[in-house]
């Protein structure tokens, strides 16, 4: 398996993997190749984006996309998307990707990392394993 930064040329393969992953259980979302490609393309174009993909035999096994944010006391990193193809899950690919992504963030001087995910989900179990914890003070507000 190879880990390398995602580039615009990787978008078709990464969008296919993103769509298949999030349209499957437990997320059961409704992505099309077009919406998935636009979503990832926008994230790649975000200022201070950092995006890493995992590849095997020309196939995108998964990726993590985020960007650095300038805050009052330093730089924080927001992870916007993280996905591993269902057939490749539970093989350590997510751990390898996130470990590299976090090490690279640290080397850029990032002081904290945050993300949103579903409560009590397999994703939360994955992030907990990597020492993420629930925020103590912040909550997410939505409407309607
Ligand atoms: C969550 C996800 C990124 C994890 O990637 P992965 O490559 O399957 O995870 P890894 O194999 O590296 O797992 C590392 C550790 O995380 C934990 N973990 C991973 N998946 C888990 C699951 N389904 N249930 C419980 N714990 C899990 C385990 O502790 C695991 O170590 P172990 O296999 O030695 O027990 C992947 O399952 C995925 O893409 N899911 C669908 C999309 C998603 O939920 N994205 C995140 C939403 S923001």
Automatic annotation (TrEMBL):
GO molecular function terms attached to this record: acyltransferase activity, transferring groups other than amino-acyl groups
Annotated Pfam families: Acetyltransf_10
Presence of the UniProt keyword Acyltransferase in the record: yes
Gene3D superfamilies: 3.40.630.30
Species this protein is from: Deinococcus marmoris
Annotated TM spans: none
Domain N-acetyltransferase per the UniProt entry, residue ranges: 1-144
Name listed for the protein in its UniProt record: N-acetyltransferase domain-containing protein
Key words, A-Z: Acyltransferase, Transferase
PROSITE patterns, alphabetized: GNAT (PS51186)
């Amino acid at each position: 398996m190879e880990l390398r930064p995602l580039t615009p040329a990787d978008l078709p393969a990464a969008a296919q993997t993103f769509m298949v992953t999030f349209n499957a259980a437990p997320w059961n979302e409704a992505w099309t190749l077009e919406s998935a490609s636009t979503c990832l393309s926008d994230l790649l174009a975000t200022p201070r984006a950092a995006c890493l993909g995992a590849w095997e035999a020309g196939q995108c096994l998964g990726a993590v996309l985020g960007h650095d944010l300038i805050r009052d006391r330093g730089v924080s990193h927001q992870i916007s998307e993280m996905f591993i193809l269902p057939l490749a899950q539970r093989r350590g690919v997510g751990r390898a990707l996130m470990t590299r992504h976090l090490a690279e963030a640290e080397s850029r001087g990032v002081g904290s990392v945050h993300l949103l995910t579903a409560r009590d989900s397999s994703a939360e179990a994955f992030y907990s394993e990597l020492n993420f914890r629930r925020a103590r003070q912040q909550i997410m507000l939505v409407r309607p």
